[in-house]
Design brief:
Elements: E1 3-5, E2 10-14, E3 20-24, E4 44-46, E5 55-59, E6 70-74, E7 88-97, E8 102-113, E9 121-128, E10 149-153, E11 158-167, E12 176-185, E13 196-206, E14 218-219, E15 223-225, E16 234-237, E17 243-245, E18 250-253, E19 257-265, E20 268-277, E21 288-290, E22 294-296, E23 305-308, E24 314-316, E25 322-325, E26 329-336, E27 342-350, E28 361-362, E29 367-369, E30 378-381, E31 387-389, E32 395-398, E33 402-409, E34 415-422, E35 434-436, E36 441-442, E37 451-454, E38 460-462, E39 468-471, E40 475-482, E41 488-496, E42 504-506, E43 511-513, E44 520-525, E45 529-530, E46 538-540, E47 545-552, E48 558-560, E49 564-566, E50 582-584, E51 591-595, E52 601-605, E53 611-615, E54 619-621, E55 628-635, E56 641-649
Parallel strand pairs: 14-20, 21-27, 28-34, 35-41
Antiparallel strand pairs: 1-27, 2-20, 3-13, 4-7, 5-6, 6-13, 7-12, 8-11, 8-13, 9-10, 9-12, 15-18, 16-19, 17-18, 19-20, 22-25, 23-26, 24-25, 26-27, 29-32, 30-33, 31-32, 33-34, 36-39, 37-40, 38-39, 40-41, 42-43, 43-46, 44-45, 44-47, 47-48, 47-49, 50-51, 51-54, 52-53, 52-55, 55-56
C-alpha cells in the first residue's frame, strides 16, 4: 500500500478591536431549536423521581419566546404548571468552552413565571464541569450548590418574557463552564405557572487574537484542519492557486508555494503562512525481496531520502533506495521530500526456496529430476547448450559433457542454484554389425575402465571384462559398455539365425533330399564322414547308418540337419514270391544285365539322386556313364521297387 502524508504550518497574529463572539446561539441550541429534545440541543436535565414530580420540559406550552420550543417547568411532562405541595428541585445544564484571552463574558436569556418569591423560583449558576447537580438540592429556600456560583436569582414574578443579561467574571476565560438553570419550590403553596426560559446566549470578546493551530508541513492534494480557540469566525486564503480553505478551516494543497491563511473573528484577525510542498511521485520497483538479496525502489521526483520502518527486516540506502532483505517479514519504505511530504510502500521480505535436491550427475541423453520447495516457480538452465531443463517440473536432460548451472526461481522471485555435471559418454563401440548365430566376436571401446553387458541376454552373452560376445539365437542383439559414471554406449548387432535344413527321403529314387534354397551343401554319413560329390540338395542312400546335411545360406550362416537313419532295405519294394531280380556284372565296365519280370523299369542315378538313364531293356549300356558309384533301382509295372543296388563302373 502506498500512502502520501503531509503536515502544516507557520503562524502570525494581527490584533484588532474587540468584537463579540457567540459561544451559545440563542436561535439554535440556546433557543432549543436544534432538535425536539434537550439532548439534541446539548442540554442535560436532572429531575426528582418522587411524585409529585416537577421537571424541566421542552415544548411550546409556555409558549416559547421565539421559535417552536422553549423550556419550562411541568408536573406532567406536558402542561405549563407545577405542583406546590411538596419541596422539589430540578436542574437544566449545559457546558460551554471559554477560550483563553476571552473578555466581556456575558450570559443572557429570557424568562417568565409566577411562583412564590423567596421560595418557588428560578436560580442560575456557573460551575466547573465536574460539578453535577442532584435532584431536590438545594431544597428551598437554600441556594447553595457546593462548588457552584449563584449568578442570578428570581426576585419577582412576570407573566411575560423578560430579558436577563449577566456579566461573568474574566476568570472563567480558558475554562469549561457549566451553566445551570435550577427550579426550586417548597410545599407552602405558590402561584402557577412556574419558570419558563428561552433564547439563552453566551457571548464573549477576544481580548487577544489567538494563534491558528494545525500541523506542518503541507503537501499538494492533502487536507489539513486548522482551528482557533475563538469560534464562529471565518477563514480565507490569500492565494487559492496554492491552497484553499473551507468555512470550517480545512485547507487543501493545490500547488507548490505559499499562501497566507486568515481567520477573522469579529474584528480579531489571526494569520498563518502555509507552505505547500510538491508531492513525491508514486514509488516504483519490485516490492518483494528475498532474504540476503536486494531490490531497488525509485521515485521520479528527485531529491528525497529513503527510510525503513523496520531496518532489521529490510534496510534501505538513504540516497539510492536499494533495499536489502534480512529476515522474512514486512517493512514500510518511506520516501520523504525536503519539504516534508512523503510517500510509503510496503516491501515484503521472503525466504528463498530450499536448496535444490536430486541427482547432480547425468549423462548426455539421460535425465535427472531436481526439486526445491514451494510451488509456482520455474526452472532455467544457464548452460542450455550443455543441459536443458523443463521449466515446469525441473527435469534436467544432458546434451553433451560439461557442467551446467540450473536455477530455480520461486513465485516470489527468489532463486537458488545447483551445478549438474554431464559426464562424457564412452567412445563408439567397435564390433561386427552382422553375425551368424553360431559366431564369435570381441567388442572394443577406446574409453578404458568400463564394463560390458548384454541388453538382450536371450540373444547373446558378453564377458563383462573382455568383451567376448557369444551369440545364442537370431535377432537384433544389443550390447552395452558402461563407465563408472553410469554413462554408457550401446550397439545393435544383427544375429542371423542358423539355417535348419530338413531331410526327407524318396524310396522310388532312393534319394535323401533337403531344401533347395541354400547356396552350398555337404552331405555326411556319421561313420564315413563327408560324402564325396554330395554337394547338392540331394544324395542317394548307399550305406546303412545315419545321414545328415550341412548347408550354407545367403548370409553365410552354416546349419546342420538332424540325423536321418537310413537302411538299404528302405529302397526295396514288395517282390512277388518266387520272382528273381538281379543285375550283373557288378562292378561293370560297359553294360549291365537285368533279370526282372517283363515290363520292369531300370533306372541308374548318381549319388546325388539325379537319374542318369532309364530303360526297360534287359541289357543296358553304361558307355555314357563316367567311372564311379551309382544307384540302380528296378521297379515293376505297378511302380513298386523290387531292387535297389549300388553299382560300381570301372
Amino acid at each position: 500500500m502506498r500512502k502520501i502524508h503531509g503536515l502544516l504550518l507557520a503562524c502570525s497574529i494581527s490584533v484588532a478591536s474587540n468584537a463579540q463572539i457567540t459561544a451559545l446561539n440563542p436561535t439554535a441550541e440556546g433557543g432549543f431549536e436544534a432538535g425536539s429534545s434537550f439532548l439534541m440541543n446539548g442540554w442535560t436535565t436532572v429531575d426528582p423521581s418522587a411524585a409529585p414530580i416537577n421537571t424541566w420540559t421542552l415544548s411550546n406550552a409556555a409558549p416559547a419566546y421565539g421559535g417552536a420550543r422553549g423550556a419550562h417547568i411541568s408536573n406532567d411532562g406536558a402542561s405549563y404548571t407545577y405542583s406546590n405541595t411538596a419541596t422539589r428541585t430540578c436542574h437544566l445544564y449545559r457546558d460551554i468552552t471559554v477560550p483563553p484571552g476571552a473578555v466581556n463574558l456575558n450570559l443572557g436569556f429570557y424568562w417568565k413565571g409566577m411562583g412564590q418569591v423567596g421560595a418557588d423560583r428560578l436560580l442560575v449558576y456557573t460551575a466547573p464541569t465536574f460539578i453535577v447537580p442532584v435532584a431536590n438540592a438545594p431544597a428551598s429556600p437554600s441556594t447553595t450548590i457546593s462548588g457552584a456560583t449563584l449568578v442570578w436569582t428570581q426576585t419577582s414574578t412576570s407573566s411575560v418574557y423578560a430579558p436577563v443579561s449577566i456579566s461573568l467574571p474574566p476568570s472563567l476565560a480558558g475554562t469549561n463552564v457549566r451553566i445551570i438553570f435550577t427550579w426550586q419550590n417548597d410545599a407552602t403553596g405558590g402561584t402557577n405557572p412556574g419558570a419558563a426560559i428561552d433564547n439563552i446566549s453566551f457571548t464573549y470578546e477576544c481580548g487577544t487574537p489567538a494563534s491558528i493551530t494545525g500541523n506542518a508541513p503541507m503537501c499538494v492534494g492533502n487536507t489539513v484542519s486548522l482551528s482557533n480557540i475563538f469560534t464562529g469566525g471565518s477563514w480565507s486564503s490569500s492565494n487559492t492557486g496554492v491552497a484553499t480553505v473551507s468555512t470550517s478551516g480545512v485547507i487543501t494543497g493545490v500547488n507548490g508555494g505559499t499562501s497566507t491563511i486568515s481567520y477573522t473573528s469579529g474584528s480579531c484577525l489571526s494569520t498563518a503562512v502555509v507552505t505547500v510542498s510538491p508531492l513525491p511521485a508514486p514509488i516504483t520497483g519490485n516490492d518483494i525481496v528475498c532474504v540476503g538479496a536486494t531490490t531497488a525502489f525509485a521515485n521520479a521526483v528527485l531529491g528525497g531520502t529513503w527510510s525503513s520502518s523496520y531496518p532489521a527486516v529490510a534496510s534501505v540506502m538513504t540516497s539510492s533506495g536499494i533495499i536489502t532483505g534480512h529476515v522474512a517479514g514486512g517493512s514500510y519504505i518511506t520516501y520523504t521530500m525536503p519539504g516534508g511530504c512523503w510517500i510509503t510502500d510496503t516491501v515484503n521480505v521472503v525466504n528463498p526456496p530450499s536448496p535444490i535436491t536430486g541427482g547432480m550427475s547425468i549423462c548426455p541423453g539421460t535425465s535427472t529430476d531436481l526439486n526445491s520447495s514451494g510451488s509456482g516457480g520455474s526452472w532455467t538452465s544457464l548452460n542450455p547448450g550443455s543441459a536443458s531443463v523443463n521449466p515446469a517440473n525441473g527435469i534436467v536432460t544432458g546434451i553433451h559433457a560439461d557442467t551446467a548451472q540450473i536455477k530455480y526461481t520461486s513465485a516470489a522471485g527468489c532463486s537458488v542454484f545447483a551445478t549438474v555435471t554431464i559426464n562424457p559418454l564412452p567412445d563408439t563401440i567397435i564390433s561386427r554389425d552382422i553375425m551368424c548365430a553360431q559366431g564369435k566376436d570381441t567388442a572394443y571401446d577406446a574409453t578404458p575402465g568400463g564394463t560390458w553387458s548384454s541388453v538382450t541376454p536371450a540373444l547373446g552373452t558378453i564377458d563383462p571384462l573382455s568383451g567376448h560376445f557369444t551369440p545364442l539365437a537370431g535377432g537384433i542383439a544389443v550390447i552395452k559398455y558402461t563407465l563408472s559414471t553410469t554413462c554408457a554406449r550401446t550397439k545393435t548387432i544383427t544375429l542371423n539365425p542358423l539355417p535348419v535344413p530338413n531331410v526327407t527321403y524318396t524310396w522310388f529314387t532312393n534319394t535323401l533330399y533337403t531344401d533347395s534354397g541354400y547356396v552350398a551343401y555337404q552331405w555326411y554319413h556319421t561313420l564315413f564322414g563327408a560324402i564325396p560329390d554330395a554337394n547338392t540338395f540331394r544324395t542317394a542312400g548307399v550305406f546303412n547308418g545315419n545321414y545328415y546335411v550341412e548347408v550354407t545360406d545367403s548370409n553365410g550362416c552354416v546349419g546342420r540337419s538332424a540325423l536321418f537313419a537310413y537302411n538299404t532295405s528302405m529302397g526295396v519294394g514288395a517282390v512277388t514270391s518266387g520272382t528273381e531280380v538281379a543285375i550283373y556284372p557288378n562292378p561293370a565296365t560297359d553294360h549291365i544285365n537285368v533279370i526282372a519280370p517283363s515290363g520292369a523299369t531300370t533306372t541308374v542315378a548318381g549319388m546325388d539322386g539325379r537319374i542318369i538313364l532309364s530303360s526297360k531293356q534287359n541289357k543296358i549300356s553304361l558307355t555314357e556313364l563316367p567311372t564311379g558309384i551309382f544307384m540302380v533301382t528296378v521297379t515293376d509295372t505297378e511302380g513298386r521297387k523290387i531292387l535297389t543296388e549300388k553299382l560300381a563302373r570301372n
